[in-house]
Write a structure and sequence with these properties.
two-stranded parallel sheet; about 60% helix; 8 strands; serine acetyltransferase, domain 1; disordered N terminus; about 5% strand; flat; mainly alpha; TIM Barrel
C-alpha cells in the first residue's frame, strides 16, 4: 500500500515537473514575441513593403520617429506606401492589397476582404483607406503591441479620400461616360469641386459628356442614350426605353431636353441620396438690401461659453457674423461651430494653431497652417472656408503668395482683447460704426459677449444689417481675390 502511494506521488511530481517545463518554455516564447523592438518593426516594413533590408540612415530615422511619438505605426506604413521607391515598383492593386495584409495583419488576404479592398483601390481611393481600415483591427493593434508601439491612424489629405459617396459618384462618371477608371489627378479635381459645391452632380455629368474625351466615347445617338442610363440611373438601358428615346431624337427632341428628363427622374434622385449628394438647389430671389450693412467678426475662437452667447443675440435679432476660427479648437467646440453655420454665419480661417505670425514662417508652413484649418472646418460643417484672416492682421509678399485665400483685415478695432471691458467695446462700436465696416472682436472673453448683448440689438434698431464678410463684399460689388487684403467694404 505504502509503495503504491509513493509510486502515485512520484508520477504526480513527474507530471507537474513536465507541465512546469512546458509553461516555462511557452513563457519564454511569449516573451520573445513581445520583446520585439521598434527597430525590428521598421526592418519588417522595409522587407515586406520595399523588398529589401533597411539602410542604416533610414532605419535610424524611422526608429527615432516612432520612439519619440512623432509618428505612429499606421503613419509609417502609409509613408512607405507613398514613397517613390514603393510606387516605382508599379505593383498592381491586387499585389498592393496582399502586401498590406502581410505588413499590417501578418497573414495572407481572405477572398471577401481582398475583394472589398480591391474595389476601394479600383474606385480610386488612396492606400490611406486601407491603412486606416486595417489600423483599427485587433490584429494590427496586437501586432503593434508586440513591438511596443502605437498603432494609430492616418489623416486623409486628398479630396478623393474625404467623402466616400462623392468619390464613388465621380468614379462612376469616368466608367460610364469615358469608359475608363479615373486617374488620381482627375478624381481629386472633380471631387473637390463637388465637395465645395462649385459644381453639382448633374453638371458634372454634363461636363464629362462635353469634354473631348467624352465626345469621342459618346459619339452617336445610341451611345449617348446608353451613357445617360448608366450615369443617371445606374443601370443599362432597357430595350423599350432606349428605342423610345432614339425615336424621340429622330422626331426632333434635342439631346439637352432628354438630358433634363433623366436629370429630373426619381431614379437619379435616389442615386444621389445614396451618395449623400443633391441637385443644385433652386435659387430663391434675394431681397434687395436696404439700409447700411456691417460685418461683425470674431477671432481666435470658438469658445462655447462666449460664442453661444453671441449666437443667441444674432438668432434673436436675425443677424449674422463671421467667425475666424483657429483650426485646433474647432473639434473641441464643434457644436457651436455647427450652430453658427446653421444660423447662416460664416466660418472662416484663422490658421490652424495661431502660434506664429504668417510673416515669420515659410511658404510651405503658410500653406500647412491654412490647409489644416480648412480641413478641420470641413470635418465639422462639410464646407471649406473661402476667406481667412492672418494672425494679428499681419502679412507680407510671401503671405500673399502662399495663403491662397482673400485676407480679411478690419477697419474698426474694438481692442476687446486688450481692455476686456464691456463698456469700452460697446462705445468703440456704437460711437464709430458706419456702412461697410469690418469690426474686429474675439469670441474668447465674457466681456465681449456682454457687449454683444447690448450692441447687436442696438445696431438692429438703428437699421444696420448684420451680415457676413462675404455677403458684405457681394452687396458692395467687390470681388474678393486670393492673396489680396481687404480692410473694409466702403
Amino acid at each position: 500500500m505504502r509503495k503504491n502511494v509513493f509510486k502515485a506521488l512520484a508520477t504526480f511530481l513527474s507530471i507537474m515537473l513536465f507541465v512546469n517545463i512546458l509553461s516555462f518554455d511557452a513563457g519564454t516564447k511569449a516573451d520573445s514575441v513581445t520583446d520585439q523592438t521598434t527597430e525590428d518593426f521598421v526592418k519588417r516594413g522595409y522587407e515586406l513593403m520595399l523588398g529589401r533590408e533597411a539602410e542604416e540612415e533610414g532605419l535610424e530615422y524611422w526608429t527615432n520617429e516612432l520612439n519619440l511619438g512623432h509618428l505612429n505605426a499606421a503613419q509609417m506604413i502609409s509613408s512607405f506606401s507613398e514613397a517613390p521607391e514603393f510606387m516605382g515598383k508599379e505593383y498592381s492593386n491586387d499585389e498592393i492589397i496582399d502586401i498590406f495584409y502581410r505588413v499590417m495583419l501578418s497573414r495572407e488576404s481572405d477572398p471577401d476582404g481582398k475583394a472589398y479592398w480591391l474595389d476601394v483601390l479600383d474606385t480610386g481611393f488612396s492606400t490611406r483607406h486601407i491603412v486606416n481600415g486595417f489600423a483599427g483591427s485587433p490584429e494590427f493593434k496586437n501586432l503593434c503591441s508586440g513591438y511596443g508601439i502605437d498603432a494609430g491612424v492616418v489623416n486623409f489629405v486628398e479630396p478623393r479620400d474625404l467623402s466616400l459617396g462623392t468619390t464613388r459618384f465621380v468614379a462612376s462618371c469616368y466608367r460610364n461616360i469615358l469608359k475608363r477608371n479615373p486617374d488620381k489627378d482627375g478624381l481629386n479635381y472633380w471631387t473637390s469641386l463637388l465637395i465645395s459645391n462649385e459644381i453639382y452632380p448633374e453638371e458634372l455629368i454634363s461636363e464629362f459628356f462635353y469634354t473631348p474625351e467624352g465626345q469621342q466615347a459618346v459619339n452617336d445617338d445610341a451611345s449617348y442614350i446608353d451613357a445617360l442610363y448608366l450615369s443617371f440611373l445606374g443601370r443599362a438601358a432597357d430595350d423599350a426605353g432606349k428605342a423610345f428615346w432614339l425615336d424621340s431624337l429622330k422626331d426632333g427632341v434635342t439631346k439637352e431636353q432628354i438630358y433634363d428628363q433623366f436629370k429630373d427622374s426619381e431614379e437619379f434622385s435616389s442615386i444621389l441620396e445614396q451618395h449623400d449628394l443633391t441637385l443644385r438647389p433652386t435659387p430663391t430671389p434675394t431681397p434687395v438690401p436696404t439700409g447700411p450693412m456691417i460685418a461683425l467678426t470674431f477671432d481666435d475662437g470658438p469658445y462655447s461659453p462666449v460664442t453661444n452667447r453671441i449666437l443667441d443675440q444674432l438668432e434673436v435679432c436675425g443677424g449674422k457674423a463671421t467667425f475666424f476660427v483657429v483650426g485646433d479648437r474647432v473639434g473641441t467646440y464643434s457644436s457651436c461651430v455647427s450652430r453658427a453655420f446653421e444660423l447662416g454665419c460664416e466660418i472662416a480661417n484663422h490658421t490652424y494653431d495661431h502660434k506664429n505670425s504668417l510673416t515669420s514662417i515659410s511658404g510651405s508652413m503658410i500653406e500647412w497652417e491654412v490647409g489644416e484649418c480648412n480641413n478641420a472646418v470641413f470635418n465639422i460643417i462639410g464646407q471649406y472656408p473661402t476667406i481667412m484672416r492672418p494672425c494679428g492682421g499681419s502679412y507680407n509678399d510671401t503671405t500673399k503668395q502662399y495663403v491662397g485665400m482673400p485676407m480679411i483685415i478690419w477697419n474698426l478695432d474694438t481692442q476687446d482683447w486688450k481692455y476686456r471691458d464691456t463698456e469700452k467695446t460697446v462705445s468703440a462700436i456704437l460711437n464709430n460704426v458706419s456702412d461697410g465696416d469690418i469690426i474686429l472682436m474675439h469670441d474668447l472673453y465674457p466681456s465681449t459677449a456682454a457687449a454683444m448683448e447690448i450692441v447687436i440689438p442696438e445696431l438692429t434698431r438703428r437699421g444696420y444689417q448684420l451680415v457676413t464678410v462675404s455677403e458684405l463684399a457681394e452687396a458692395k460689388g467687390i470681388d474678393l481675390e486670393a492673396g489680396e487684403a481687404y480692410y473694409s467694404m466702403h
